[in-house]
Amino acid sequence: MPIEKRWVVKPQGAPATVAAMASALRLSPVLANLLVQRGIDTVEKAEKFFNPSLADLHDPFLMKDMDRAVARVEDAVRAGEKIMIYGDYDVDGCTAVALVYKFLRQIGHKNLMFYIPDRYTEGYGISIKGIDLAARKGVGLIIALDCGIKATEKVVYAKTKGVDFIICDHHLPAEEIPQAVAVLDPKRVDCSYPFDELSGCGVGFKLVQAYAQKNDIPFRQIVSLLDLLVVSIASDIVPLTGENRILAHFGLENLNREPSKGLLSIIKICGLDKHNITIDDIVFKIGPRINAAGRMRMDENDENASPSGGHAAVELLIEGNESVAQQFGSVIDAYNQDRKSIDRSVTQEAHDYIERNPELKRLKSTVVYNPKWMKGIVGIVASRLIETYYRPTVVLTMSNGFVTGSARSVPGFDLYQAVESCSDLLENFGGHMYAAGLTMRPENVGEFTRRFNAFVEENIDPQMLVPQVDIDSELLFSDITPEFRRSLNRFQPFGPGNTAPVFMTCGVSNRGDAKLVGMDCEHLRMDLVQRQKPNTSLQTIAFQQPTHYEWVKSGRPIDICYQIVENHYRGTVTTQLRIKDIKPVMK
User: Fold this and answer.
1) How far is CA 558 from CA 261, 279, 413, 455, in A?
2) Are 527 and 537 in contact (CB under 8 A)?
3) Strands 533-542 and 572-584: what pairing?
4) The domain 6-51+469-584 is classified under which CATH number: 3.30.930.10, 3.40.50.10770, 2.40.50.460, 3.30.70.120?
5) CATH topology for 56-334?
6) Distance (Å, rounded) from C-alpha 414 to C-alpha 436?
7) Quick check: 316 and 328 in contact, CB under 8 A?
8) Is the pTM for the entire model greater than 0.70?
9) Span 339-376, pLDDT tens digits
């Protein structure tokens, strides 16, 4: 049985402010309230929110070290020096590498190469193997993207090999900043850049923007790169506020109007409507395919295999020939199919293990270990287990003689603190409140499991173990007019910091035949009406919620919370409610 969710209605905006905003902007009070809840409480703020402008992007030279970074790239371009673009193996890293590589190629610099480390043999970040390759290939400058902020020793090592570094990162720095030529990271304490929530690709774009600005390259020439940047912003789950909102807005325009050949091949493989791609489409369809390449282990015996799966992803993203891009796209999609098959299998194994051990089910956290599981998918498996058991979760496997794994949390619980409490047992660890990675010696697994579980037991608020649905506002079906939908669309793109609003409607019932749909009849489709306005019927879909089928089919009333979406099918656009949760109304 699914865990029953707790519904929490967010505090509503001050009535006078909401009324003033509704009147000035000609919005319904419900939508004016959404603005105020998001901190948009003046007409001026609303105008900027509803009308993003590239003119509002910050001056890239406000970022610490940007002048030094641009000067070093100028020197390299002028001298025809070989440049290596180096990035992490996830979506953010691969798109960042592709964006900077394409720009340098676009301005005529041909002495270029790129490098994505292998997750299994090199791990995260700057590697000695990558630096050694750069030195052998005659590289004078490495531009590192989405990694490098803690690579102090590696940067020193590279210097002994005659290789300079420019670091473009967005992760929290340590106390010591690497002694690179330039370190671009808006999270540096000595950096006064006005927006510190850029993705790694976003920092790379600011370098490109600065170079273009300094060298009188028209801004419109780099706008075409924003399709890559929006894929990074959506996939890396950075806040869709401030500069990210502007970049995502125009990136989506590119993605829907004229995407690069590599992204177009993925769009076609996903079967997406080419002109109605949303942030959700990137998060759930485009991003996972790019990510899958970096997650999969390469065949070391295959002479034709790419140096890493992430390398193949970048090849796709920089490809300018449509037919070649389609071939790369098929390879990436195959990686994704393999990844899905493996993560389903491993998730089932982990689930079965927990179900066979009643003492594990009684705990307030989950730690599972199997040395045979693939390192690249343990983070996904941890997230899947949270969907079932809803508690802080660590999934561990064996890699290169060490036990390594990923941890995921539930809202409100500081997972990083829990992992840090076991730091004496760990070789290394990193992450943040809701996600972390860790490595330990095999003999420490038992003690780590005991201490991690004990820390969670002592520190977690029991309410955190109950899934919560945050509801923006109550709504009547009769409020959902065409004008309401058009105004709601202006709130997009949705994401962290500007989430798709969740509405609640009480006392609705099934009008037609409720149906269970999907391969395993796991989704519930209904046409619902509200008692106050029985002539207003709306199509709804409740994914992974078959539980209340018999109740709904009988016509008995339910309360629902949901998001309002547009369903595009064969040129027809209809309104659909995507139901988050259902509560039967007990009379």
Assistant:
1) 47, 30, 31, 39
2) yes
3) parallel
4) 2.40.50.460
5) inorganic pyrophosphatase (n-terminal core) (3.90.1640)
6) 10
7) yes
8) yes
9) 788 888 999 999 999 999 988 889 999 999 999 998 88
